[in-house]
Amino acid sequence: MTRTPVKSSNIAAIAHDATAQRLEVQFAPNRLGESSVYEYYGVGEPTFEELAAASSIGRAFKFIRDAYPCRKIAEIGPDGIERPVEAVVS
After folding, report:
1. What is the pTM of this model?
2. For the residues of the chain, what is the DSSP string, one character each?
């Protein structure tokens, strides 16, 4: 999936696979320049479209965060390199 940058203080980019109903969320970097990428499961196209069109991506995302299972799939270091992880978050 190719992530699209979004205007949000907490979320850097999002991507969606409509067939697999997967949403990827790349969070904004912390003070050290590190960020994480999570994958959310069961997110349909209408939910993704609402998220992408929301005036506040962060506020709209809270519904998804609380309603869908997820796992951390990558960490991005200050060097900008994305490294996959195996940890299951829930």
Report:
1. 0.90
2. ---EE---SSEEEEEEETTTTEEEEEEPP-TTS-EEEEEEES--HHHHHHHHH-S-HHHHHHHHHHHS-EEEEEEE-TT--EEE------
Domain count for the chain, please give it: 1
Length of the chain, in residues: 90
Asked whether residue 2 is domain-assigned, the answer is: no
**Segments forming the whole domain that contains residue 43:** 10-84
Look at residue 88 in the predicted model and tell me its pLDDT. 47
